[in-house]
UniProtKB/TrEMBL annotation:
Protein name: Uncharacterized protein
Domain of life of the organism encoding this protein: Eukaryota
Organism: Cirrhinus mrigala (Mrigala)
Length: 134
C-alpha cells in the first residue's frame, strides 16, 4: 500500500483490487497465533494499513463502498472466497466475516456502513433460503 497513494485520479479498477486484497489480508490474519509474527502483523495494521484505508475512504469513498458490497464488481472480487467455487450462502457468510474483521480497526465508518449494509440485508433476504438463515 505504500506504493499507491490514493488520489482522485487513481484508476478505480487498480485501487479496488488493492483495497479488496487488503480486506482479504485483514480477514486472513485475524486468527493468527499470538506469537512474534502475529504480534508484528497486528502492529502493522494500525500503524500503516488502517491509515491508508482511511485515506482511500476520504479520497475515493466510492471504491470503499464497492469493495464492501455483497456482490462487488468483477475486478473487486479478489482473494478468499472469490478464488474458490462456493455457494452464494457461503460467499455471504465469508463476506460478513470479512467485514467483522475490519470493525475493530475502525476502518468501517458510519457513513460507509450506511451505504453498504442495506445491500447486505437485501442480499440475505433474497438469496439465503429460510432453512439456512441460522
Amino acid at each position: 500500500v505504500s506504493l499507491c497513494t490514493p488520489s482522485e485520479n487513481t484508476p478505480t479498477e487498480s485501487l479496488a483490487r488493492l483495497v479488496s486484497m487488503v480486506f482479504q489480508w485483514f480477514h486472513s490474519t485475524a486468527y493468527m497465533m499470538d506469537d512474534e509474527v502475529g504480534s508484528l502483523v497486528e502492529k502493522l495494521k494500525p500503524q500503516f494499513v488502517t491509515k491508508w484505508l482511511k485515506t482511500v475512504c476520504d479520497v475515493r469513498f466510492d471504491v470503499m463502498v464497492m469493495c464492501l458490497l455483497p456482490k462487488p464488481v468483477e475486478f473487486a472480487r479478489v482473494g478468499g472466497y472469490w478464488d474458490k467455487s462456493c455457494s452464494t450462502v457461503t460467499q455471504l457468510k465469508e463476506g460478513l466475516n470479512r467485514i467483522l474483521c475490519l470493525i475493530p480497526y475502525n476502518v468501517i465508518s458510519q457513513p460507509l456502513w450506511e451505504c453498504f449494509m442495506p445491500e447486505w440485508l437485501e442480499a440475505i433476504r433474497t438469496e439465503v433460503p429460510d432453512n439456512q438463515l441460522k
